[in-house]
Structure formats: C-alpha cells, structure tokens
Design brief:
Cofactor: Zn(2+)
Largest sheet: 4 strands, parallel
Structural class: alpha/beta
Radius of gyration: 19 Å
CATH class: Alpha Beta
Helix content: 40-55%
Enzyme class: hydrolase
Distance between the termini: 26 Å
CATH architecture: Alpha-Beta Barrel
Protein name: adenosine deaminase
GO molecular function, one term: metal ion binding
InterPro entries: A_deaminase_dom (IPR001365), Ado/ade_deaminase (IPR006330), Metal_Hydrolase (IPR032466)
CATH superfamily: Metal-dependent hydrolases
CATH topology: TIM Barrel
Strand order of the largest sheet: 1-2-3-4
Length: about 375
C-alpha cells in the first residue's frame, strides 16, 4: 500500500482529515498510478520512462502537468497508459488504486477510465474492463483484510475526439452488473462537443444508464449546455466554468449580489452535481478567468449559492494530491470546517451512481462518523 501520503489536519490541528470518511466521484485510473509501479511495469514490457527514480518521476509528472493547458496536461497520460496495456498491468494499477483510495479514507469511489486507450497489445474492450474489475475486487479484498471497507464502481469513458462513443456506451451497459456503474466522455473538450456522441447518449438514455460528462473545464457555457441537453448528464465533470454564467452585480462587506444565467440556474435548481477538482483546475487553466491561485477558484462562490459542489482529485499522480489534501487546501483558502467537509461528502453521496438504498446507507455512515468528530 502506498505509504507516502502525508497527514492533513483539520483547522486547529486536532483531527486527521484522512481519518474522516470520504466519497470520490472524479478520479482517473490512468492518473492515479504510483511512480514506482510505472517504473516496474515499464521495465517489464521494455518501455522507457523519463527517469527510473520514483521520487523524481513523481516530480516529473507534477511539473509536466503544471502547464496551465489541458492539452499539455493530457500528454502525461501517454506515459501512464503505455504501461496499462496488459491484463497484469491493468489489474495491478486498479488494485493499487483501490488501496490508495482506502488509505485516504475513501469509503465509496468511482474510477473512470477509457477502455479504448488500452488495446495496443491485443486485448479486447471486454478483456480490459474485466481486468480492471479483477484488480478492483482484489483491492477491495485487501482493504477488507486490513479491517476496513470500501466500495468502488467503474465509470467507463469514451474519448470525445474519437468516434467510438456508441461502441463504448454499449460496452458499459454490457458490464453494468459486473462493476460498471456509469458512463463518461473525456479528453480534449474544446472543439469536440458532447453532441458528437448523441447516438451514444440516446442509447444510454433508453437503457436507463447514468451519465457524467466532462464539461466546463477547457470550454465554457456552450459545452456545459451540450453536456446537459445532448448528453443528459446527471453530473458535470469539473463544470467550474459554469461560473461564467454567474454575474456578480455588486458586493459589500458581508454579501455578494448575483444574477444566474439560464444554464447556471438550471444546474443549481436541478441540483446537477459539479465534480470540482481544485488543484487540477489550477493546473489546466480552467479558472484562468478568475485568477491563478486557489483563493481565486469559484468553488466557494458556487458553494455559497447553493450549487451541489463536490471535492475531487481528478488525477492524483499529476496533481500530487489526495481528497484529504484538497479538503485541507480548500479549508486554508476559504475557512471551511468539519461541517463543510461533511456537506461536500453528503453532496457526493447524493450524486453517486448507486441505488437509492445504498446511497441512504452511505449517507448514514457519513453522518454518524462526522457526528463523532
């Protein structure tokens, strides 16, 4: 299990954030590898990596990702996906992924990844999904053996710049009773609207299969609109640029007076979930319109206005982060306390792609744990 994570404490320094139960909705499998695992898997299949020192490789990923551009940020995935082309590689990465989630206090997680990116060594789409599921289940068993519990579901993702959306949607539905809980589209957002995959979204709607869509990260309101009305998205992957549809009319010492545009109002009033990833949003330039520091992130504005915000990592390796670290950063920036942390987790529970009864159980577990803090 990865033991390199440092502890993050609640304001006042008395309580470990890692010890609090958390929900993870937006976390990419190919963005969560351990550097040492990248090195070992690359060596096993004869692939060169930038360095064979684990600490230095972790730094390389973080430096490369800290570009201010989603396109440049995505190039780091060429390295991670290259070592995830075999059953052994996929199983190991998925198993360790679950272990690392549990080490951060996650009790329910959804892991998203694009099967079409893992076929270079001859595996089929079904074989790669099965390999990841085997790894997830092994990781869950490891966590259980250590005296804890975690539940994890797959979000099968189609690459928005490719033309395999319907095929990947059918793959997701084919595995809906074998670990897959939802569908996503990801990759380069600008110039590749959700409407390009309308056939896939139509199919998923007919199958009553839940959808989240990356939108409002590298493109603005039109992209979000497409995710909602072409994709029928129940959640927005990032969605941070929804704040472009929020106009601050005036501010005084205690209050901001705002007007919501039609898309922002629809998202808030329908409680469509925002899968916000603060550190990643800084790295990719998603919040460039507001600034280049975490205090500039519109997270708090959206939270105060009643949007269903959640806290996520996006890519733990590239952002050198965990959910606990993200919560600590947000607390430092906006003064959040344990009650806010609980609200973020309850927001995520409500949005999880799980049956109602399981969401209610998770909500009770979260409430009970935070009541003891």
């Amino acid at each position: 299990m990865n033991t390199s994570q440092s502890e993050h404490l609640l304001p006042g320094g008395a309580i470990s954030i890692e010890a609090l139960p958390k929900i993870s909705l937006h976390d990419h499998l190919d963005g969560g590898l351990r550097p040492q695992t990248v090195i070992e898997l690359a060596d096993a299949i004869g692939i060169d990596v930038p360095t064979t020192d684990a600490a230095a490789l972790g730094t390389w990923f973080a430096d490369q990702a800290n570009s201010g551009s989603l396109v440049e940020y995505l190039k780091t995935f060429d390295v991670t996906t290259s070592v995830m082309q075999t059953v052994e590689g996929l199983e190991r990465v998925a198993r360790e992924f679950v272990q690392d989630l549990a080490a951060d206090g996650v009790i329910y997680g959804e892991v998203r990844w694009a099967p079409e990116q893992h076929l270079a060594r001859g595996l089929s789409l079904d074989q790669v999904v099965e390999a990841v599921q085997q790894g997830i289940e092994a990781g869950i068993d490891d966590v259980f053996s250590s005296g804890r519990e975690i539940r994890v579901g797959q979000l099968v993702t189609a690459m928005r710049h490719a033309d395999r959306g319907l095929e990947i949607a059918e793959l997701a539905v084919r595995h809906r009773d074998r670990g897959v809980v939802g569908f996503d589209i990801a990759g380069a957002e600008l110039g590749f609207p959700a409407g390009n995959h309308r056939a896939a979204f139509d199919y998923l709607a007919k199958e009553y299969f839940p959808v989240t869509v990356h939108a409002g990260e590298a493109d603005g309101i039109d992209s979000i609109r497409g995710a909602l009305f072409d994709g029928r998205a129940l959640r927005l992957g990032h969605g941070v640029r929804l704040a472009e549809d929020v106009t601050i009319e005036r501010e005084d010492d205690d209050n901001s007076y705002v007007t919501l545009g039609p898309v922002a109002r629809w998202v808030r009033d329908r409680q469509i979930t925002l899968e916000l990833s603060p550190s990643s949003n800084l790295q990719t330039g998603a919040i460039a319109a507001w600034g280049d520091e975490l205090i500039d992130h519109p997270f708090d504005l959206l939270y105060q206005l009643g949007f269903r915000v959640t806290v996520n990592t996006d890519n733990r390796l590239m952002s050198n982060t965990t959910i606990s670290k993200e919560l600590g950063l947000l607390s430092d920036a906006f003064g959040y306390d344990v009650d806010d942390f609980e609200q973020f987790q309850q927001n995520a529970v409500a949005a999880a792609f799980l049956p109602l009864e399981e969401r209610e159980e998770l909500a009770e577990d979260i409430a009970d744990a935070y009541a003891e803090v």
